[in-house]
Design a protein that fits this description.
The protein is mainly α. Helices cover 86% and strands 0% of the residues. It is built from 3 helices and no strands. The model has no long low-confidence stretch (mean pLDDT 84).
């Protein structure tokens, strides 16, 4: 019987009680993270689809926002760069 208990403990990666306790704690932490992402365990596939769609849309919003920042900065940076290049060429 002791050999069977040792084999079970070796297979599970430790004492069954502590492994179960760690699995419960890890499940709660992962559950909190997934809930913060808006996932629902009752319809996980719909929730995952919604999350992917949201991240996809967020990515495009980020690109659009970066493009606007680029254009705003380029209005100042490019003419200044051009002026400094022309001015340094005359030297």
């Amino acid at each position: 019987m002791s050999d069977h208990h040792n084999n079970l403990g070796r297979w599970m990666g430790g004492s069954p009680f502590w492994v179960l306790l760690r699995l419960i704690a890890l499940s709660v932490v992962v559950g909190v993270i997934l809930a913060a992402l808006g996932l629902d365990p009752l319809n996980i596939f719909t929730s995952l689809e919604s999350l992917v769609r949201h991240l996809f849309n967020f990515g495009f919003e980020t690109v659009e926002r970066l493009w606007r920042y680029f254009l705003l900065g380029a209005v100042i940076v490019v003419p200044l760069w051009l002026i400094t290049r022309v001015a340094s060429r005359g030297r």
